[in-house]
């Protein structure tokens, strides 16, 4: 037996749509005018402003913390060292006392021969010299180890002196020459000495 639903197709009811119209003045053109309902969400610009203010406040707090740390000296264990750069000019070192002796040429036994000695010092006062002639004879012109009052001013030193000696017999003689300079510190001399040895060939008469 064919049993069919005698009720027919079921119709679904559509939702009701309510359209509101803004009131118009009497006599105005009656056209449909939609009414704009206010947005329930806060404006986007307001949300952005609050975010920017929060970020700015965080930066201010961070800056205050760093400034306080720097004012307190930072870490107690930190050490700061400086190294002069490659182009930094270093103070010039003071040159030490030095001397040279001109070679003696034509020395003859029984005849005086002359040594010419040159000396230089970065700073100081000439204090004299000593000569050991190699024949058990020596000479000296060293000044006494005292600083007069007022003390002489130390300055760059350069000079030449001559020393004369006569050898009695021909031969080869090692001659030791020394010069000295000094500076005065608290009324006492501080000595510096330079020494060299030259060989003098003495011919027979």
Descriptive overview:
With 205 residues, the protein is mainly beta. The protein contains one helix and seven strands. The protein has one helix at residues 44-71; strands spanning 98-101, 107-108, 113-132, 138-140, 155-165, 171-185, 188-203. Strands 1, 2, 3, 4, 5, 6 and 7 form a seven-stranded mixed beta sheet that branches. A hairpin with a 5-residue loop joins strand 3 and strand 4.
Spell out the key features of this protein:
single chain; 205 residues; mainly beta; 14% helix
Helices and strands, in order, run as: HEEEEEEE
> Segments where pLDDT lies below 50 for 5+ residues?
17-22
- The whole-angstrom Rg is 55 Å
Shape designation: rod-shaped
Distance between the termini: 173 Å
State the secondary-structure class.
mainly beta
Mean pLDDT: 76
The biggest beta sheet reads: 7 strands, mixed
Strand content: 25-35%
Helix content: 10-25%
Number of H/I helices: 1
Q: Count the E strands.
A: 7
Give a topology summary.
Blueprint: H1 44-71, E1 98-101, E2 107-108, E3 113-132, E4 138-140, E5 155-165, E6 171-185, E7 188-203
Parallel strand pairs: 2-7
Antiparallel strand pairs: 1-3, 3-4, 3-5, 3-6, 6-7
What's this model, at a glance?
By secondary structure, the chain is mainly beta. It has one helix at residues 44-71; strands spanning 98-101, 107-108, 113-132, 138-140, 155-165, 171-185, 188-203.
């Amino acid at each position: 037996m064919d049993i069919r639903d005698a009720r027919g197709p079921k119709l679904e009811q559509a939702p009701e749509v309510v359209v509101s119209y803004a009131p118009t003045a009497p006599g105005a053109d009656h056209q449909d005018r939609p009414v704009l309902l206010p947005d329930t969400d806060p404006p986007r610009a307001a949300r952005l402003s609050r975010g920017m203010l929060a970020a700015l406040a965080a930066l201010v707090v961070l800056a205050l913390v760093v400034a306080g740390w720097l004012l307190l000296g930072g870490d107690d264990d930190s050490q700061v060292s400086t190294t002069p750069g490659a182009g930094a000019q270093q103070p010039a070192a003071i040159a030490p006392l030095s001397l040279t002796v001109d070679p003696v040429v034509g020395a003859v036994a029984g005849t005086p021969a002359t040594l010419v000695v040159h000396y230089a010092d970065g700073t100081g006062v000439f204090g004299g010299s000593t000569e050991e002639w190699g024949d058990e004879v020596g000479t000296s012109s060293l000044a006494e180890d005292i600083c007069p009052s007022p003390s002489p001013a130390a300055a760059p030193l350069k000079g030449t002196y001559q020393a004369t000696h006569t050898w009695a017999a021909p031969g080869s003689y090692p001659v030791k020459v020394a010069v000295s300079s000094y500076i005065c510190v608290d009324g006492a001399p501080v000595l510096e000495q330079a020494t060299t040895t030259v060989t003098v060939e003495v011919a027979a008469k």
